[in-house]
Amino acid sequence: MPRYPHMSPGEEKLWERYLTWAPTQFQKLTYDVHLGDSAPMDPTWPPWLVNLVLATSRKRVDVIGETDKEVIIYEVKERAGMSALGQLLCYEALYREEYKPMKPIRKAVITDRLPPNMEILFPRFNVEVILV
Question: What's the pTM value of the predicted model, to 2 decimals?
Answer without folding.
Answer: 0.91
